[in-house]
Amino acid sequence: MRRLLPKSLVGQTAAVLILGLIATHLLTIIIFEEHRRVVLNETEQQHIAQLVAAISDIILSVPDDDRELVARASESHSFRVSLVPITPSSVNVVDDPQSARLGELLKRRIQTAVDEPIQVEIGEAKPRDELSVNATIVEWLQTRLLRMATGHDQDTALLVSVPLPTGERIDFTTMLPLAAAPGWPKVVATTGIFLFAVLLLSVWTVRRLLLPVRVFADAATSFSQDVQAPSLPLTGPYELREAIGAFNEMQLRIRSQFEQRTQMLAAISHDLRTPLTVARLRAETIDESDVRERIVSSLAEMDQMLQTTLAFAREGTESESTSMTNLGALVEAICDDLAELEYDVTAAIPDGIILPCRPVALKRALTNLIENAIRYGTCAVVDVRSDAQAAEIVIADSGPGIPAKDLERVFLPFHRLDASRNRETGGLGLGLAIAKRIVESHGGQIRLSNRDVGGLEVRVSLPVHFTKELQDVK
């Protein structure tokens, strides 16, 4: 059942409104039809009572010899008037509250003209009562088809016997009229048009009301990728303004913590550079070349560790502007620089892939990935492709690969795979962490997988259109 429910808040709100409107509309139709049926029945009963009373008064007011003629003249195909009582077996009396009410009404109307009690019988008519002497076959078929269509296969007959002072009785026999069936095609069509109009209005209204919520969600996504994302303006309903205010305050606190961390690491790096420089100068005075080279190498390694750690800490807090960049030219420049250093790099780069990015940061990430492929796999094969939605950079090497259980862990800061990587050429374990953070800050994804022929394959996917977090570049 939950699979049928809309996933979006707009869809769920519209579904609730439509279901509520359908239930309300159906209930209204049922109440209206019941009231309509009661009103029609009462109206028809009043009409029959007036007709019977009027004919009785006329017959009582004319001479005895003319009463038969008046009775015949008053008949119709659905209404019989006779001065000869019909066989009592022609009506099977049934116990019906509606019939009792009609009988009471007739007695009150006609009792004023005669002294004897009036006999009123309402029941299920036998087939021979459906067709009077004056009815045509067409009229009978019309009545029968109407009753079959409304589910009333058995007709309801009314027999009223009015006693006359001469000892005769006037017998009125008629079929009680059926309430017309509701026009369901018209009801369905009206309901459909009404619901469609309400649906359009509801969707438009809900989308307008939820627009600040959508902006709020986009801002949260943008901030998760870039701590320098701008704060949201306080707009929308009161509750949403409260939430936006709390979000902006949280954003400022987190940004402040990032900046404090970066400033602390920068201060540490600055403070350590002076003693490192002094130690390097003193090492140069050592006469033994082997000892001197080892000390200088260790000091250079320490300086590189400081630079790499500081670069990792600064990532995400730098304010490099975003611009439309030729991805092919960017990757080609990286490969050319590495090829000049006599590294084994081959690339298949199409032209014309333009996407929004921070070029310096993206170049740093791709350089880390390609250098990793060269360092641990002896060579790098770079392939760039794109479609209407995203550009993909595939970097493959021929190295030992990575155990499947560590394919995600290698992105953790300071995590190194000593068993699968050469320890002498290994870094601090920050290269992949920096690359992942940069790629995700562009709204992209980075995935690792082992090749069937051996080696590791890195896939970097980047959007080729402006996402919410990159709108400020225009």
UniProtKB/TrEMBL annotation:
<keyword id="KW-0597">Phosphoprotein</keyword>
<keyword id="KW-0812">Transmembrane</keyword>
<dbReference type="InterPro" id="IPR003594">
    <property type="entry name" value="HATPase_dom"/>
</dbReference>
<keyword id="KW-0472">Membrane</keyword>
<keyword id="KW-0902">Two-component regulatory system</keyword>
<dbReference type="InterPro" id="IPR003660">
    <property type="entry name" value="HAMP_dom"/>
</dbReference>
<feature type="transmembrane region" description="Helical">
    <location>
        <begin position="187"/>
        <end position="206"/>
    </location>
</feature>
<keyword id="KW-0808">Transferase</keyword>
<feature type="domain" description="HAMP">
    <location>
        <begin position="207"/>
        <end position="259"/>
    </location>
</feature>
<dbReference type="InterPro" id="IPR036097">
    <property type="entry name" value="HisK_dim/P_sf"/>
</dbReference>
<dbReference type="InterPro" id="IPR050980">
    <property type="entry name" value="2C_sensor_his_kinase"/>
</dbReference>
<feature type="transmembrane region" description="Helical">
    <location>
        <begin position="12"/>
        <end position="32"/>
    </location>
</feature>
<keyword id="KW-1003">Cell membrane</keyword>
<dbReference type="Pfam" id="PF02518">
    <property type="entry name" value="HATPase_c"/>
</dbReference>
<dbReference type="GO" id="GO:0000155">
    <property type="term" value="F:phosphorelay sensor kinase activity"/>
</dbReference>
<keyword id="KW-0547">Nucleotide-binding</keyword>
<keyword id="KW-1133">Transmembrane helix</keyword>
<feature type="domain" description="Histidine kinase">
    <location>
        <begin position="267"/>
        <end position="466"/>
    </location>
</feature>
<dbReference type="Pfam" id="PF00512">
    <property type="entry name" value="HisKA"/>
</dbReference>
<keyword id="KW-0997">Cell inner membrane</keyword>
<dbReference type="Pfam" id="PF00672">
    <property type="entry name" value="HAMP"/>
</dbReference>
<dbReference type="InterPro" id="IPR004358">
    <property type="entry name" value="Sig_transdc_His_kin-like_C"/>
</dbReference>
<dbReference type="GO" id="GO:0005524">
    <property type="term" value="F:ATP binding"/>
</dbReference>
<keyword id="KW-0418">Kinase</keyword>
<dbReference type="InterPro" id="IPR036890">
    <property type="entry name" value="HATPase_C_sf"/>
</dbReference>
<dbReference type="GO" id="GO:0005886">
    <property type="term" value="C:plasma membrane"/>
</dbReference>
<dbReference type="InterPro" id="IPR005467">
    <property type="entry name" value="His_kinase_dom"/>
</dbReference>
<keyword id="KW-0067">ATP-binding</keyword>
<dbReference type="InterPro" id="IPR003661">
    <property type="entry name" value="HisK_dim/P_dom"/>
</dbReference>
<protein>
    <recommendedName>
        <fullName>histidine kinase</fullName>
        <ecNumber>2.7.13.3</ecNumber>
    </recommendedName>
</protein>
